[in-house]
Design a protein that fits this description.
The complex is a heterodimer of chains A (337) and B (417).
Chain A (H helix, E strand, L loop, with lengths): L1 E2 L2 H15 L3 E5 L15 H5 L4 E3 L4 H14 L2 E5 L10 H8 L2 H4 L9 E6 L14 H5 L5 E3 L4 H13 L4 E6 L25 E2 L12 E4 L4 E5 L2 H13 L3 E5 L2 E3 L3 H11 L2 E8 L4 H13 L8 E5 L9 H4 L3 H12 L2
Parallel strand pairs in A: 2-3, 2-4, 4-5, 5-7, 6-7, 10-11, 10-13, 13-14
Antiparallel strand pairs in A: 1-8, 6-12, 9-11
Helix pairs in contact in A: 1-7, 3-4, 8-12, 9-10
Chain B lengths: L54 H5 L21 H26 L13 H8 L7 E3 L5 H6 L4 H9 L31 H15 L6 E6 L6 H13 L3 E7 L2 E2 L2 E2 L12 H6 L3 E5 L3 H16 L5 E6 L29 H11 L5 H24 L24 H11 L1
Parallel strand pairs in B: 1-2, 2-3, 3-7, 6-7
Antiparallel strand pairs in B: 4-5
Helix pairs in contact in B: 2-3, 2-10, 2-11, 3-9, 5-11, 6-7
Classes of the chains: A alpha/beta (337), B alpha/beta (417).
The complex binds thiamine diphosphate (TPP) and magnesium ion.
Magnesium ion binds next to strand 4 of chain B.
């Protein structure tokens, strides 16, 4: 075991997989010699060679097209898109190509690629370094979407993503790279070292895709969250004193519906939290599923706490970010008799 | 019939090539790949030259200023001393403005800043050769365009500080200016998008039988984006009145220009392949930059179509305040850059022609420093990111659409409660 922050845990996952599987290649803008703008690939080129960890042209469509081609050959490409906000030039390669290759070729070809991209706000990145576009990808048939909330899961999930034979979009909440963040931006930054999930095995292990984690057991209500919002939800639960169960979805697609249904059937109340914009966000899908599966057990309307339906405004980051105060209010609303 | 199956070929196994820059930290800087022709050597074709006619110029380097500060050769522009003095002032103002904003970032008055240190002749030199009505589609590193158009630096600072006078209402990353009045298109954080938009604007101007042309910029790194190639194809197909500029400052964050394909062929050479006349110019030579830009603008105005210009320069500062170049390039690389400092070179020329003195230079530097100090004081009085007045957070719901739909009005109410 070692103590790792999330960037180090991700680095360790890639290091582990580079060592285990010669077909794993890591590439993206600035990921080679420099080690990535968030330092997630630091030292990997020096250790594993420039033909396995390398810089790419600034061309996201090109990066993911290369990944599809390499995947078709039989490699396991792990491509970094520098910010989730810059994935759009690669949309066609993901939506029309990676996601459908297996289907359209009747299983002859497939693209076992992993796309890593930092997402979310909280670092004054403005509208082009803060987005959470996960719902654009969960809406596409043939893509898996993963968002970890802590170092242990980040490493285990990334290893599973790399080993998976389908394309996986792996969003890394950038505000969590260096420490857990509960939305109290005015308080001192906490390092991961104080958090139990910073205990990370140095070698190989995995956290399976498609399995949620019950982060806090409770009986009064269920909070569904992922990424940074897991920590925000926990803070809101603490602060309200409501005995809510907090579920970290970890993988959005395929979704762990059983864990969700079991919890909501038990509590009868549900709050859904995400940082992404609300309309057609992943919360809408969750809301529909909970309604479909738990209708007769629900004792209150389902609440959604999300980013507003506007671009992420730089100066109003904390008015935009769905912090613990807003989550607490939603919790209180679902508890009203 | 497959001829290859008859006799087994003695084919070596394939090798995977990944390019590497000549020097990394700890190495001596090495610019031996940059061939420097003497100033004045490059021929100047007529403005109705074909793409094919420019094929040598696209691989060459047009230089006007020689080492003595003398302007030489066919590209020596017919330019009034006034224009040169204004250019010098604007470059110096741009540099001091950058220094001040960098300091403001360190002081927490803004979260982020990007300097254009060493590249001032690109924006300022090109602006000096354009009409103020021409529409600019720049990147984040052409703040000199606004300065050269005498746009208010207080206004620019207000954007950087995201304060109560920020016309972008605190929404945009610092340096992502927009100025409709200065014909300066709203900057995007997403690389390359402006390059092909400029072509569309130019097509619209042609369609409307207007007289304004479009001018756009892209970094060496971002030429890899699809938008560069969309722009080249559309500009060639529709013979759009647009000047397409590649600012080759050698680096794209930590990736040297070879990662964008700059080692295999110059960026200017790409123009020839698309059928667009192309020039490659010493980007730190104010006179050469002015001259090639004028040539390209003249072509566009005369319905001769687009031009691609590669401006060879060097990003002397870090990529942004979030960057540390000592991690990926030799610490002294900047001081070894063979094309020097654009401000020093123009100063030398002005002194050479007897239009400038050391004393006047020192006085001008003090004058622009004072101008920036005064402007910063005023801008700070309207607030900074760290403290003081800002726009009302409720304004974040405005301008998503022209009319606010019900769901945003509802969210606005929620924000208030
Ligand atoms: C579509 C997109 N991809 C990636 C980025 C991140 N990024 C910002 S600047 C930059 C390097 C650009 O280099 P270059 O085009 O050479 O311009 P320079 O910064 O040198 O002026 C990168 C990769 C981005 N802003 N947009
Ligand atoms: Mg560059």
């Amino acid at each position: 075991m070692a103590t790792m922050n999330m960037a180090q845990a991700l680095n360790s996952a890639m290091d582990t997989m580079l060592a285990r599987d010669p077909d794993v290649l890591i590439f993206g803008e600035d990921v080679g010699y420099f080690g990535g703008v968030f330092r997630c690939t630091t030292g990997l080129q020096q250790k594993h060679g420039a033909d396995r960890v390398f810089d790419t042209p600034v061309a996201e469509g090109g990066i993911l097209a290369m990944a599809v081609g390499m995947g078709a050959y039989g490699l396991r490409p792990v491509a970094e898109i520098q910010f989730a906000d810059y994935i759009y030039p690669a949309m066609d390669q993901l939506v029309s190509e990676a996601a459908r290759l297996r289907y359209r070729s009747g299983g002859e070809f497939w693209a076992p690629l992993t796309v890593r991209a930092p997402c979310g706000g909280g670092i004054f990145g403005g509208q082009t370094h803060s987005q959470s576009p996960e719902a654009l990808f969960t809406h596409v048939c043939g893509l898996k979407t993963v968002i970890p909330s802590n170092p242990y899961d980040a490493k285990g999930l990334l290893i599973s993503a790399i080993e998976d034979d389908d394309p996986v979009i792996f969003f890394e909440p950038k505000r969590l790279y260096n420490g857990p963040f509960d939305g109290h931006h005015e308080r001192p930054v906490q390092p991961w070292a104080k958090h139990p999930a910073s205990d990370v095995p140095e070698g190989y292990y995995n956290v399976p895709l498609g399995k949620a984690a019950v982060i806090r057991e409770g009986s009064a209500a269920t909070v569904l969250a992922y990424g940074t919002m897991v920590h925000v939800a926990l803070a809101a639960v603490e602060e309200t004193g409501i005995d809510a169960e907090v579920i970290d979805l970890r993988t959005l697609l395929p979704l762990d519906i059983d864990t969700i249904v079991e919890s909501v059937n038990k509590t009868g109340r549900c709050v859904i939290v995400h940082e992404a914009t609300r309309t057609s966000g992943f919360g809408a899908e969750l809301c529909a599923l909970v309604q479909e599966h738990c209708f007769f057990k629900l004792e209150a309307k389902i609440e959604r706490v999300t980013g507003w339906d506007t671009p992420y405004p730089l100066a109003f980051e904390w008015d935009y970010f769905p912090g613990p105060r807003r989550v607490a209010k939603a919790l209180q609303r679902v508890m009203e008799p | 019939m497959n001829a290859g199956t008859k006799e087994p070929l003695l084919q070596p196994t394939l090798r995977f090539h990944v390019p590497e820059p000549k020097a990394r930290p700890g190495h001596a800087p090495d610019f031996s790949n940059l061939v420097l022709p003497v100033a004045g050597a490059a021929p100047r074709p007529p403005v109705n030259a074909s793409a094919y006619d420019t094929r040598d110029l696209a691989g060459d380097l047009i230089r006007v200023l020689n080492d003595d500060g003398e302007a030489v050769g066919p590209w020596r522009p017919d330019i009034a001393v006034d224009v040169l003095l204004r250019g010098l002032r604007h470059m110096m103002l741009t540099r001091v403005f950058d220094e001040r904003m960098l300091l403001s970032q360190r002081q927490g008055k803004t979260s982020f800043y990007m300097q254009c240190t060493g590249e001032e002749a690109v924006a300022v030199g090109q602006a000096s050769a354009l009409d103020s009505a021409d529409m600019l589609f720049p990147t984040y590193r052409q703040q000199g365009l606004l300065i050269a158009r005498d746009w208010s630096i207080v206004d620019m600072m207000c954007q950087v500080f995201s304060n109560s006078h920020d016309r972008m209402k605190g929404r945009q990353l610092p340096v992502m200016y927009s100025s409709r009045d200065a014909n300066f298109f709203s900057l995007s954080g997403n690389l390359g998008t402006q390059f092909s938009q400029a072509v569309g604007w130019a097509m619209a101007s042609a369609y409307k039988r207007d007289r304004r042309i479009a001018v756009t910029w892209i970094g060496d790194g971002a030429t890899a984006e699809g938008d560069f190639h969309y722009a080249m194809t559309s500009a060639a197909v529709y013979q759009a009145p647009v000047v397409l500029n590649v600012v080759n400052n050698q680096w794209a964050i930590s990736s040297y220009q070879g990662i964008a394909g700059g080692e295999e062929a110059t960026f200017a050479t790409r123009g020839v392949g698309y059928g667009i006349p192309a020039l490659r110019v010493d980007g730190n030579d104010f006179l050469a930059v002015h001259a090639v830009t004028r040539w390209a603008a003249e072509r566009a105005r005369a319905n001769l179509g687009p031009t691609l210009i590669e401006l060879v320069t060097y990003r002397a500062a870090p990529h942004s305040t979030s960057d540390d170049p000592s991690k990926y390039r030799p610490a002294d690389e900047s001081s070894c850059w063979p094309l020097g400092d654009p401000i020093e070179r123009l100063k030398k020329h002005l002194m050479h022609i007897g239009a400038w003195t050391e004393g006047e230079h020192t006085a001008l530097r003090e004058e622009v420093a004072e101008q920036v100090r005064t402007a910063a004081k005023e801008a700070e009085s309207y607030g900074t990111l760290g403290q003081g007045p800002k726009h009302d957070p409720a304004t974040m719901f405005e301008d998503v659409f022209r009319e606010m739909p019900w769901h945003l009005r509802q969210q606005l109410e929620e924000l208030g409660t």
